[in-house]
C-alpha cells in the first residue's frame, strides 16, 4: 500500500526533459508502491501562456513564470531542474538554500567551478536533511542496473576493458540551426557534456570504479550554422543569419580506471544512422557484458566459466519480475522504453527522501563526471599527438 504522505514538486523547464520528468512524476505512484506520493504542484516556464498550456498537457496543478517564485512556495518541497546547463548552478543552489530538495538534470553544471559550488551547497543542505540528486537516468535502465549487479557479484571477474560509445546523428545536416546545445556559453560543451557525460557515468556505475586519467581528441566538423528560428528543440529550423558553433561535435578519449582497467569512449552527433545508440561493452577476466540502448531491454552476457563447447554470448531479455525495476510493470517480454528510466529515477529518489537516505547519483558524483569532462577538454586542447613518420 502506498503512503498518503505527499511531496510537492516544482519543475523548471517543460520541453524535452520537462516532458520526460512529467511522465515520471505522473506514473511513479501508479506502478510502484511509494512511501511518498509526488504532488505535481507547479510548472515553471518563462512564457505564461505557453507554460499554462504545458501544465495542462503534462498534469501540473499551477504555474509560475520565475523560478525564484518556487523557492517561497509552501507547497513545493522539491525543485526539479530541467533547463539548459547554464542555469543549473544558480537554480539548484538557490533551491537548496531555500530548504528544497533538488533533482537536477545532467551534466550537473557547465564548469567544474559551478559543480564545486553545487556540491558545497548540497553538503550544507544535507546537514539539514535537504537532499539532492543528478539525473543520470540511464543507470535506471533495467539492463544497466542488471549489468551493475552482475559485475558486483563477480560474474565477469576482474574488469579489463570498458568500451563505451554514445552515437547520435541529429546535426549531420550542416543547415541544422545553432540551437543552445551548440553554444558553449549555454551548454558548456557539445557531444562531450551532453552525451559523453552519460557514458562516463554509466561506465563508472557499472564497473563500480572511477577513471583516474584520460587522453582525448575533440572535433567540430561544422563550424558555422544558421541562427535558430522560432523553436529551438532537437528539430528546430534555422534563419538566414549564421553564427559560430562553439562546442565539439564529437569527442573521443581513452582512459584508465583505478583498478587498472583500460577504457575507450566515443561521443558523437555525427554517427549517420545512429539515433541514440548507447553502447557499453565490458570484458572481464571471467566474462563479458554488452548493451546497446537501441535494444534497451536486452543485455548480452558471456560467461567465460562455461564449457567452451557451448559457451557464447547469451541475450538476456531483462523483463523478468526478478530483474531491477521490471517487476512493477508488465508480464515478461512486454517491453519497457526510454521514459521508464525517468520513472525509476524518481521512484528511487522518493524512497530515499522518505527513508532519509542520500540519493544517488549525488551532486558529488556529478562533480566527479564534470572533472572527467574537464580533463578530456584539457587533454584535447594540449593535443599531445605523436606524428607517424612517413
Ligand atoms: N537525462 C537525459 O537523458 C537528458 C536528455 C536530454 C537533455 N538532458 C538535460 O536536460 C536539460 C534540459 O535539456 P532539454 O533537452 O530538456 O532542453 P530543451 O531545450 O528541450 O528544454 C529546455 C527548457 O528550459 C526552459 N528554460 C531555459 N532557460 C530557462 C530559465 N531561465 N527559466 C525557466 N525556464 C528556462 C526552456 O524554455 C525549455 O522549456 C539539460 O541539462 C540537458 O543536458 C538530459
From TrEMBL:
<dbReference type="InterPro" id="IPR055170">
    <property type="entry name" value="GFO_IDH_MocA-like_dom"/>
</dbReference>
<feature type="domain" description="Gfo/Idh/MocA-like oxidoreductase N-terminal">
    <location>
        <begin position="8"/>
        <end position="127"/>
    </location>
</feature>
<dbReference type="InterPro" id="IPR000683">
    <property type="entry name" value="Gfo/Idh/MocA-like_OxRdtase_N"/>
</dbReference>
<dbReference type="InterPro" id="IPR050463">
    <property type="entry name" value="Gfo/Idh/MocA_oxidrdct_glycsds"/>
</dbReference>
<feature type="domain" description="GFO/IDH/MocA-like oxidoreductase">
    <location>
        <begin position="146"/>
        <end position="289"/>
    </location>
</feature>
<dbReference type="Pfam" id="PF01408">
    <property type="entry name" value="GFO_IDH_MocA"/>
</dbReference>
<protein>
    <submittedName>
        <fullName>Gfo/Idh/MocA family oxidoreductase</fullName>
    </submittedName>
</protein>
<dbReference type="Pfam" id="PF22725">
    <property type="entry name" value="GFO_IDH_MocA_C3"/>
</dbReference>
<dbReference type="InterPro" id="IPR036291">
    <property type="entry name" value="NAD(P)-bd_dom_sf"/>
</dbReference>
<keyword id="KW-0560">Oxidoreductase</keyword>
